[in-house]
Amino acid sequence: FFPAYWQFDPPVLTSNLNSGTTKDGHPWIGAENPKLTITEYTDYQCFQCKKMHFFLRQLIAQHSDKIRLIHRNFPMDHSVNPIVKEPFHIGSGKMALIAIHAATRNKFWQMNDLLFETAGESDVLDVTKLAARLEMDPKTLARSVNDRNARLLLQDDILSGIKLQINVTPEFIIDGKVYLAQVPPEIIKNALNH
After folding, report:
1. Cα–Cα distance between 159 and 171 in angstroms, integer?
2. Local structure of 101: helix, strand or coil
């Protein structure tokens, strides 16, 4: 049921898919009235997260009337995540803050795609390049990593993940159950058959 990761094409452009924000303020993409809702906890510097990002976005593009994906940030960056004690995934916290800022400009999913696409290309996050690609103000985007509200939203995501006993990424929540690294194929098949 799952193709090999290296066979994935880049995700379909988000502008063609329904998206919005949950009642508690988290970005979603996919079905307005989903048969299956998947909440992801991801880190932009995580290779497995990037692969699942490509897979889930293809799946949603193919079944946009049945599946909804809700995004939550869980950067494994020691500078923002209290469970990470040693330097790890340095910069993923800043990437999450930039994504949170993009959500305030209705560009979350575009930024989400771009961050996964460019992760690992350089040790330095090129905010000017990101801003140019999404037609955003580079100075405002650069300042967003220090925005108090964005930091509170990120802290809320991390603390909610910790309460769910998440300690690696990616992890997925479906009907209150936590799944590590992937969504079980039988859950997807069941949703698609109804």
Report:
1. 14
2. helix
